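Figure 2 data, in text form.
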Amino acid sequence: MEQGLPASWRVIPRAAVAAGVERGETFLVRWGEEVVATFAVEWADVEVWSDTGTEGAAYLHRLAVLPACHGRGIGGALVDWSQRRAAERGRSLLRLDAVATNTRLCQWYARLGFAQRGEVTLPGWTRPSMRFERTSLHSRPNEKRRTTAVASP
């Protein structure tokens, strides 16, 4: 089975990233002087979630951790940080999507407490995305904290 992102997802338009930075929605995570991760927390995603209400939800996008840093708990800490940021803004849900055929990634989101909310295939895409959602009341009591992440715009 093929894993990873379709080629069209590997290049995010510079203008889209720049707009997210300008709005304070895109973050870099540094470990010392090295950038080890990036992600965005956005307040709407009508393209992926057009059939649901967007009130009360925040949307996690473009979460990427440097491969050499996988397994350190950075990604999970960033998901939790994003959930807290959403709650601070009065949003009780954290939503995201992932390539539905990326089994390993979808299983990781499930382990983090996300529930699947159905597949969607966007115009121009050949692979469906699986939508995930987690409430702000969620906790992961069995997971040890290995990393404390601090993100800033």
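Caption note: The chain has one domain: 7-135.
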